[in-house]
Design goal:
The structure holds three protein chains of three kinds.
Chain A lengths: L5 E7 L2 E8 L5 H8 L18 E4 L2 E4 L12 E3 L13 H8 L9 H14 L5 H8 L10 H22 L1
Parallel strand pairs in A: 1-5
Antiparallel strand pairs in A: 1-2, 3-4, 3-5
Chain B lengths: L11 H5 L15 E7 L5 E7 L1 H4 L4 E6 L32 E2 L5 E7 L2 H10 L1 E6 L6 H4 L15 E9 L2 H7 L2 E9 L11 E6 L5 E4 L5 H12 L6 E4 L15 H13 L3 E4 L2 H7 L6 E9 L5 E13 L8 H9 L9 E9 L13 H19 L3 H8 L8 E7 L2 E5 L4 H11 L5 H10 L3 E10 L7 E8 L5 E5 L8 H13 L6 E5 L16 H28 L6 E4 L2 E4 L2 E7 H10 L5 E7 L7 E11 L4 E12 L6 H20 L31 E5 L17 H4 L1 H12 L14 H12 L9
Parallel strand pairs in B: 1-12, 10-11, 14-15, 20-21, 27-28
Antiparallel strand pairs in B: 1-5, 2-4, 2-6, 3-5, 7-15, 8-13, 9-10, 9-12, 13-14, 16-17, 18-26, 19-20, 19-25, 22-23, 23-24, 26-27
Chain C lengths: L6 E3 L4 H14 L4 E4 L5 H6 L7 E4 L4 H4 L2 E4 L2 E5 L4 H5 L2 H6 L1 H10 L2 H6 L2 H7 L5 H9 L2 E5 L4 E5 H4 E3 L2 E2 L6 E8 L5 E8 L9 E9 L5 E9 L6 E2 L14 H8 L16 H25 L10
Parallel strand pairs in C: 1-3, 2-3
Antiparallel strand pairs in C: 4-5, 5-10, 6-7, 6-10, 8-9, 11-12, 12-13, 13-14
The chains are: A alpha+beta, B alpha+beta, C alpha+beta.
């Protein structure tokens, strides 16, 4: 088979990025990690089950191991690196994870943060059961999920509180 | 921050923004990537390897098979619990002429990228002559079974025996006896990050290896021996780690192969295990079979136990030696004051992935067996299962209590414990006295509700020693160097918190350094719930000694009594003199000027292990139509002697329960009769998800501080897992009012519950459609 | 776990895609895979269980093939319509609510983002939700070639495990399903070991009532119990034109046992899957029945 390479543009975390001369079979996850150096997106299974590689594709969660990089031209991609500028400026959700001990090894955390960022936009005041269902596509081996649910709940309550304060 | 405060972790902000550095995140210029070619057969002779097509692949760089390794290469040695004769069953990094499990490394291909390496691996032709596989303990023990390691003369390669009193006599005279067969299935740690290594040779003949963890100093010495080089030429650097749980960080074949190949090629080589490899190559655990008879009287007093155990250890003896069988037997007696027992454990080799430890090794299995059995005794007598436990507990005044077994080379002596009190707390918290009412209420509404108990004793704090260096550097910053490893459990926070408790500073002011063999010269690493109870104690002692030195400096500077000096995050001050302050930078400068070194190294020797304990209670509901089990409540009471950071201890408990629950209901590394792994993907190997794990009610108690260390701490890492299999199985059996000989093996899948319901109802008499 | 090399094509309109497919299949004799949402195909590629010479990425055709249109008593769904779009689509909820209900069971949000109805049907996993629903509802799929198109009945489209009657040079472009009839209720029930997993077994039912509340029509399909979705409606005909009791329905459901031939694996044996099928069938019928009773007497349900 002839060797094929492609070049394309991606929009990642609000920035236009040029991907030069890569094979079309390169998954989006590998393009993000190995070409763009955005190693916050992790690979835990590469068959779509664990959710560690979940990014936001036009705002919705998607498995970056189950897409080729070349397919994401024309879409807006958000990775964990796009959720906050740095450690000093965590998003309310990230901060809630810190407060509630919602992570241990941190490996699954990126995919959970992207998924939950989307989820709270969809459902700003979820029940614990709704949080658990929304989390069910992301495996965590350390926490037993409880503190993750606590963190999402706390972030939601915090933003509800801000919301109601803003109204009054 | 004081010991006992639930402070946030210092590790987290970095991890939360995606700046964690796991080994797969590292790359260096000129780096090559490796792919390990593994045996598709459980048992076969290698007839030949044809690499012609592989070499023609784009990006191919090199291939290594056993013939390319040094002829005098030794096999990978045992680290823990070695048994001399088992040297004949050790694994070489690459299979030499025979493969003995599906997934055994046969060759390594190195290429420009992992994609290219996999392309070449697909083109590699390995000719195998398959042999009949020995795929179970039963098959291994048959008279005519092929011998996996002929020099050992049997597939039953090692036997461990423990006796207390005369068990056979006691059993003969016991008023009641119950015989049971119980088993725990093969499952594994399965951290979410797979293993990986990056080996970088430099121009000075050194090799820098990123990715080792857990026991870096030990592993460096093993690698030095296998490479025949000076350990000083090997530099191990621990990266961020995506969970360990016993499996990660042991010395595996790749831990030799990747540095060896990098040296051979004089190029950086990275190998990142993929999930399919992980499930067939990284240590399995847990699989064991128990055949027991327990003798007791009509009041439920346990009189004697005879348990014969067979542990399926897989194809080779790996670094853990016979740790899992050893600990199974050592801790099997549990919290009960047995007058007599005889325990006999067989270590059996089979054509399956070798086994090692997994969180609560031997105790998860042994607790399942013992607590399911005790529940059976209670049911046989119609007694309250908590009362039967209570009647048999080792009492407070029997502590320290010599169990009559040995574990990890020590006599097992429980240092402290108030088991009655822990059980009483649990009963009260879960409203046990009202449970019968809840159960019958649920029954009347067509729901099957059950409660299961499991009491456990854990072990922790394995020595022999751990080091810590705590100091204030020339720039006025504190540091703590430790021989521990961090695998995601919060080691850095705990060490920083212990230092800050002594020094009056904030935890984030302490730079914790670990896992780099160039900077930390020695250490025993993190495993067996030893971190806080050994390295933590060392850091605490070192910080206290540093504090005394700082106070000496302060006395000299302020010309005041040490009692009046305050240590604060900003520096030193003197009570009542607001103008007299010294920043930490100034402290460092002044100390240097008067020749006082603000660096203290301490070695804490831990001659004895320490034994935390607790109880699990699970309340479940079963959908009789589908056999689905939902967990309505789950309680863990865990006495850890002293909780340095309760937030992290609770995190360990909740995470531990989730893993134990996985083993109880979902996870199995199943094999067919040919030794083919049937659950080699995450589609079939089922880690519990957010909807399967309930909120855990965790009660941390400090009733029984350890007698062995100044903090009174006991390890907290494993007890969340230990009792989960037993508690859930007991709860299911209770919900179904099943007899002691039902639900004696894990995992308990819906299909098994439905089968039991079907059989219990008799042919056709029960409506199967709920 | 990196996919093998393949030639990648991303045609920007359907006609071009059909021409390319024709050329690769007939003139170059290449093994071609069509890539839609990729949620089944890419894991297979990552595990190197498939080695296509070429992949034609259909995603650039999304603007052409992602739609939901009502046409008389049918709903036409473009093959590249993503699952998440069907989940909340007003027309789907109004005229084909079973699809919306089934889509939610397919998997987690991230899978619904990419997965498409056409991809799911072509993959033809007998335990999957959308093939099962299509088999129950009837209707057809439209298969296009460079030369023309044909419609194939969804009840005969599924041939065996992961196999349909599509030809190598055809592209599935549209799924056409009947709208919800009057006095009719539908429901899907499935059981998986974990939330969001592949179902061990699934049942879909459609109940239509006569004016006197007796059963006018009862349809039942079982998923995960054979090489294709299993239509069990014919064994339940004795219940029609009556108002069967719970016990009578359960008795009748025992007869589906002979229709089912489930696989065995480490998670469940065949006996359990058959039992599960009966339990789920009853629950699906029960819920469909309740919905039928609440359904409007004429026209499509929930025609608000």
């Amino acid at each position: 088979m002839e060797y094929q390479q492609v070049s394309y543009q991606l929009n990642v975390n609000g920035r236009a990025c040029s991907i030069e001369n890569v094979e079309p079979r390169m998954t989006l996850a590998d393009v993000l990690r190995d070409v763009l150096g955005l190693t916050g997106t992790h690979l835990g299974c590469e068959h779509g089950v664990c959710g560690a590689c979940t990014i936001l594709l036009d705002g919705r969660p998607a498995r970056s191991c189950l897409m080729f990089g070349v397919q994401s031209q024309g879409h807006e991609i958000t990775t964990v690196e796009g959720l906050a500028p740095d450690e000093e400026h965590l998003s309310p959700l990230q901060n809630a994870f810190w407060q509630e001990h919602g992570l241990q090894c941190g490996f699954c955390t990126s995919g959970i943060l992207t998924t939950m960022t989307w989820f709270l936009q969809q459902n700003p005041a979820p029940t614990r059961q709704e949080i658990r269902e929304a989390l069910s596509g992301n495996l965590c081996r350390c926490t037993g999920y409880q503190n993750i649910v606590n963190a999402v709940e706390s972030a939601s309550q915090h933003s509800q509180q801000l919301h109601s304060e803003a109204k009054t | 921050m004081a010991i006992g405060e639930a402070i946030k972790r210092i590790e987290d902000p970095r991890l939360l923004v995606g700046k964690g550095r796991y080994v797969a995140d590292l790359s260096v210029p000129g780096m090559l990537e490796a792919c390990v070619v593994r045996s598709p057969y459980a048992y076969a002779r290698i007839q030949g390897i044809d690499d012609y097509a592989a070499r023609a692949c784009r990006g191919f760089v090199a291939i290594f098979s056993a013939a390319d390794l040094p002829p005098d290469l030794p096999p990978i040695p045992m680290r823990l619990t070695p048994a001399q004769e088992l040297a004949h069953a050790l694994q070489w990094p690459l299979a030499r002429d025979t493969v003995r499990y599906m997934g055994e490394p046969v060759a390594v291909i190195v290429a420009a990228t992992r994609y290219a390496a996999e392309d070449a691996a697909e083109q590699l032709l390995v000719e195998y002559d398959p042999l009949p596989a020995v795929a179970s303990v039963q098959a291994a023990l048959k008279q005519d079974a092929p011998l996996l390691h002929p020099l050992l003369g049997s597939n039953d390669v090692h036997v461990i025996e423990s006796r207390k009193g005369n068990a056979s006599e006691a059993l003969r005279h016991a008023p009641q006896r119950l015989s049971l067969s119980l088993s725990v299935q093969r499952h594994a740690a399965v951290p979410l990050e797979t293993r990986g290594l990056l080996a970088v040779p430099d121009e000075h003949g050194r090799i820098h290896v990123y990715g080792p963890t857990k026991v870096v100093h030990f592993n460096r010495s093993v690698l030095a021996e296998m490479l025949h080089c000076d350990p000083a030429l090997i530099h191990f650097i621990e990266t961020d780690v995506g969970g360990g749980f016993g499996a990660r960080g042991e010395f595996y074949p790749e831990d030799y192969l990747i540095p060896f190949i990098a040296r051979q090629l004089d190029r950086p080589v990275r190998w990142i295990e993929d999930r399919l490899e992980h499930l067939m190559a990284t240590n399995h655990s847990r699989e064991q079979y128990h055949q027991l008879t327990v003798g007791f009287d009509d009041n439920g007093r346990l009189l004697a136990l005879d348990d014969e155990i067979w542990v399926d250890t897989g194809a080779y003896i790996r670094t853990h030696g016979v740790t899992v069988p050893d600990l199974t037997q050592a801790m099997l007696p549990g919290p009960y004051d047995w007058p007599a027992f005889r325990l006999l454990t067989h270590v059996v080799v089979t054509n399956k992935t070798p086994m090692g430890t997994y969180r609560a090794p031997g105790r998860y299995e042994g607790t399942f067996v013992r607590e399911r059995m005790v529940e059976g005794v209670a049911r046989a007598l119609g007694l309250d299962p908590t009362v039967v436990r209570e009647r048999n507990f080792i009492t407070l005044d029997q502590m320290p209590y010599t169990v009559g077994t040995r574990g990890l080379g020590e006599e097992v002596v429980f240092d402290s414990g108030d088991y009655r009190r822990a059980l009483a707390r649990a009963r009260q918290h879960i409203q046990w006295s009202e449970f019968a009412g809840r159960k019958s209420q649920a029954r009347s509404e067509g729901r099957l509700r059950g409660m299961g108990w499991a009491f456990f004793v854990e072990k922790s704090g394995l020595g022999p020693w751990e080091d810590a260096s705590v100091g204030l550097d020339a720039r006025g910053r504190f540091y703590c160097y430790s021989g521990l490893a961090a695998l995601g459990q919060g080691t850095e926070t705990i060490l920083a918190q212990l230092c800050s408790d002594r020094l009056g500073i904030a935890p984030e002011q302490v730079r914790v350094v670990h896992g780099d063999t160039d900077v930390v010269p020695a250490g025993n690493g993190s495993f067996a719930s030893r971190g806080t109870a050994t390295g933590g104690v060392a850091a605490y002692i070192a910080a206290e000694a540093l504090k005394q030195r700082i106070l000496t400096v302060a006395e000299r500077y302020f010309e005041a009594s040490a009692a009046d000096v305050r240590m604060e995050p900003e520096g030193l001050s003197v009570i009542g003199m607001t103008t007299r302050r010294l920043s930490w930078q100034e402290v460092a400068n002044f100390a240097a000027s008067i020749g006082i070194t603000l660096d203290v190294s301490e070695r804490y020797n831990a001659p004895h292990m320490t034994y935390p304990y607790g109880v699990h209670a699970a309340e479940v509901e079963i959908d009789a139509g589908t056999g689905h089990v939902s967990i309505a409540r789950y309680l863990v009471v865990y006495d850890v002697g002293k909780a340095v950071n309760p937030l992290l201890v609770k995190g360990q408990i909740a995470g531990g329960v989730a893993q134990g629950l996985g083993g109880a209901l979902f996870e199995e590394l199943a094999y067919d009769d040919n030794g083919q792994l049937l659950s080699g993907t995450f589609i079939d190997y089922l880690l519990p998800g957010a909807c399967e794990v309930p909120d855990i009610e965790a009660i941390i108690t400090e009733d029984a501080p350890s007698r062995h260390n100044p903090l009174g701490v006991k390890g907290a890492g494993e007890g969340g897992t230990t009792g989960a299999g037993a508690a859930i199985a007991n709860a299911i059996a209770d919900a179904l009012d099943a007899p002691p000989d039902a639900f004696t093996s894990l995992p308990i899948r819906p299909a098994i519950i439905r089968r039991w319901l079907r059989q219990a109802a008799g042919q056709g008499s029960r409506d199967s459609i709920e | 776990m990196k996919p093998p090399a393949f030639a990648y094509y991303a045609p920007t309109n359907l006609e071009e895609a059909l021409r390319l497919l024709h050329e690769l299949v007939h003139e170059q004799q290449r093994d071609v895979k069509l890539l839609a949402g990729g949620q089944s195909l890419i894991p297979i590629l990552n595990m190197r269980l498939a080695h296509p010479d070429a992949i034609i990425d259909l995603n650039p055709l999304e603007s052409q093939l992602s739609y939901v249109r009502r046409a008389g008593q049918t709903v036409c769904i473009g093959a590249l319509t993503r699952h998440y779009m069907l989940q909340d689509h007003p027309e789907i909820i109004r005229s084909c609510p079973l699809i919306a209900e089934a889509v939610k069971l397919i998997g987690h949000a991230a899978i619904l983002t990419r997965g498409t109805i056409g991809g799911s049907i072509i993959h033809a996993d007998p335990a999957a939700e959308l093939p099962l629903v299509c088999a129950l509802l009837g209707g057809s799929v439209t298969l296009r070639t460079v030369d023309g198109s044909r419609a194939v009945d969804t009840q005969t489209f599924f041939v065996s495990y992961l196999t349909t009657s599509i030809e190598l040079d055809e592209i599935l472009t549209e799924v056409t399903l009947p709208t919800l009839p009057p006095r009719t209720g539908q429901a899907i029930e499935e059981f998986s070991l974990r939330h969001g997993d592949f179902a061990l077994a699934a049942a879909v039912a459609q109940v239509t009532l006569n004016a006197d509340s007796t059963l006018a029509d009862l349809r039942l399909c079982i998923g995960g119990a054979g090489p294709t979705p299993v239509d069990c409606s014919h064994v339940l005909t004795s219940l029609l034109n009556s108002a069967p009791s719970t016990e009578e329905v359960k008795d009748a459901l025992r007869r589906i046992d002979d229709e089912l031939d489930p696989l065995e694996d480490i998670h469940a044996d065949a006996a359990y899957r058959k039992e599960l099928a009966q339990v789920l069938a009853y629950r699906a019928i029960d819920r469909a029945w309740q919905r039928a009773r609440a359904a409007p007497v004429n026209g499509t349900a929930r025609d608000d």
